[in-house]
Design brief:
The protein has about 300 residues and is α/β, with parallel strands linked by helices. Helices cover about 35% and strands about 30% of the residues.
């Protein structure tokens, strides 16, 4: 559905992306991950035809984005990071306006607007002005306009940025509901969220796709990087550090931080299960108090800092 071949983009003398190549299959949800400045937005703008690359080619559903851009764009629904909304329009009038811009037949307008409003749970906000909506509902309105005309490809730039936890959960559910009906490409710098949403993950760094993982492959890579986080009190820092080291000869203390409620150690062991069991079995014998023990969430920053 989406094929990018050797995409290169310069802004003057600055190289933004350098030889990007990937292909997305019909019906899958793919995450494009990268730190700020990695080239995510530039890549999405090229895919959607908003930017022309210095070199390379993009096809959408088999149609060249550069040789036949108008036809290619008919197959794309796009949600920029800031949704393109007219604040003095209601949700209804805005979707009507976008539908006509997309060339949807007059006799199908109402049914199509009804469909996307229901899909994005905007029914109660239908007559509300876009300028009065919360950020979460503004994002929904942006997705609704992208869905008009049922394009086979949906591209979203940072759809969860700025949302509160409840809105993030609702957005995650909405995005997952698009699987199968649409090929979806989502950019983000928040790994934990895309893990819960996507089937495949492209890692963009320094303008290149460095990793291309499916869900199982990503889980294996994250397992390699995962750390145990343990907070202890009851003894001196030196005594607690010696206790932690004594749990397993292969244990590594990656960091330690003194907090109000004790010392927090971030640990890496070749046998995480054994390390955890030994800690739980022996901390009381040493006169220590265990405040908490948890598996540390791996961040996007850790992946890149460890790999490059």
């Amino acid at each position: 559905m989406i094929k990018a071949t050797n995409l290169i983009k310069y802004y003057g003398q600055k190289l933004a992306i350098n030889g990007i190549h990937f292909e997305l299959k019909k019906g899958e949800i793919v995450g494009l991950l990268g730190l700020n400045g990695s080239g995510k937005t530039t890549t999405l703008r090229i895919l959607t035809g908003f930017l022309i690359p210095t070199e390379g080619e993009v096809t959408i559903n088999g149609i060249s984005n550069f040789n036949d851009p108008i036809e290619a764009k008919k197959h794309i629904g796009y949600l920029p990071e800031t949704p393109p909304l007219y604040e003095d329009m209601t949700v209804e009038s805005y979707l009507l306006h976008v539908s006509r811009l997309k060339g949807i037949a007059e006799d199908k307008l109402k049914a199509e607007i009804d469909r996307v409003v229901q899909k994005t749970a905007l029914t109660e906000e239908r007559d509300n002005f876009l300028g009065n909506l919360s950020l979460g509902y503004r994002k929904r309105a942006g997705i609704a306009q992208a869905l008009l005309g049922a394009p086979p490809v949906i591209i979203m730039d940072e759809p969860i940025s700025g949302l509160d936890p409840k809105q993030i959960m609702e957005m995650r559910k909405l995005i997952r509901s698009l699987a199968g009906e649409h090929t979806v490409l989502i950019s983000s710098h928040i790994l934990s969220e895309l893990q819960k949403t996507c089937d495949r993950f492209l890692f963009l760094h320094d303008g290149k796709i460095q990793f291309n993982y499916n869900k199982e492959e990503l889980d294996r890579e994250l397992q390699k990087l995962a750390l145990l986080e343990v907070n202890l009190t009851g003894k001196s820092v030196v005594e607690m550090r010696n206790f932690v080291k004594s749990l397993d000869k292969d244990i590594q203390i990656r960091s330690e931080e003194e907090e109000m409620d004790g010392i927090t150690f971030s640990l890496k062991s070749t046998n995480e299960v054994q390390c955890r069991e030994k800690l739980l079995d022996s901390f009381k014998e040493k006169g220590l108090k265990l405040q908490y023990l948890k598996k540390q969430e791996v961040t996007l920053e850790q992946i890149f800092l460890t790999s490059f």
